[in-house]
Specification:
Blueprint (H helix, E strand, L loop, with lengths): L14 E5 L6 H14 L4 E5 L5 H11 L8 H25 L3 E5 L2 H11 L4 H12 L6 E6 L2 H9 L14 H17 L4 E5 L4 H11 L6
Parallel strand pairs: 1-3, 1-4, 2-3, 4-5
The structure holds thymidine-5'-diphosphate (TYD).
């Protein structure tokens, strides 16, 4: 469900997911928002998928650094799902239940877009894998950083190219489908999606995200 810039979370602690194409700046926004929440006296767990747990760190290597034969798309889907199941059980739920905010870089919408719009896996299979992994745990808010892939490519090129992962090697058309897929998720999902124009400055983006989290300006 798309929400306006007037949206404010009614829950504290909350579970927030950052989503967007590679190079959209979600990690920078995540760090800034987390620092603001901590400065306001909240306890915050910063995490990510894949790789938010010790098991997930190993799965992440298999997903992003594998140099063997190209993985089956379904095998890839199940590795993301295994990472997510461990993440939900060991990090997301325990932190929320002890009163800690959980901020994650990527969640189920990355599977719907990268494995669905990108790799072409049937949506029903993705929903089954996601449902198995999350067991009903959904974010209170998704912050989607929307950016044209052409712009994201420029940003990635200006970073250290040796750190490029297997998805960043995909062509422009792949990332265009992912971007459109995220915007589709924002419209169709029952979860609130705050869609931000990622060409704004880091300060502007953080101010909008902080507002949505109920943090006062300044
Ligand atoms: P990430 O570390 O967030 O990369 P970036 O910082 O460039 O966004 O994510 C790793 C890659 O894994 C990213 O290219 C997206 C991909 N991915 C999927 O394909 N499906 C998923 O379910 C998730 C969580 C990530």
């Amino acid at each position: 469900m798309l929400v306006s810039s007037q949206f404010t979370l009614s829950k504290s602690p909350a579970f927030i997911a950052f989503e967007g194409i590679n190079g959209c700046g979600k990690t920078t926004l995540h760090k800034r928002l987390s620092a603001k929440l901590v400065a306001s006296g909240h306890s915050v767990c910063d995490t990510r998928e894949p790789g938010g747990t010790p098991l997930g760190i190993e799965i992440r290597k298999l997903l992003l650094e594998w140099s063997g034969e190209k993985k089956s798309s379904r095998a890839e889907l199940l590795l993301f799902a295994a990472d997510r199941a461990e993440h939900v059980d060991k990090v997301i739920r325990p932190n929320l239940s002890r009163g800690t905010w959980v901020l994650t870089d990527r969640f189920i919408y990355s599977t719907i877009t990268f494995q669905g719009h990108g790799r072409g896996i049937d949506r029903q299979l993705l929903d089954q894998a996601n449902a198995l992994a999350i067991q009903g745990t959904v974010p209170d808010l998704v912050i989607l950083l929307d950016l044209a892939p052409e712009e994201a490519f420029k940003r990635i090129a200006s970073r250290n190219s040796s750190s490029r992962d297997s998805f960043e090697e995909e062509e422009l058309a792949f990332h265009t489908r992912i971007r459109d897929g995220f915007l589709e998720c924002a419209k169709e999902s029952p979860v609130p999606f705050l869609v931000l124009d990622a060409t704004q400055t880091p300060e502007e983006l953080c101010a909008e995200a902080a507002r949505a989290c109920g943090l006062s300006r300044g």
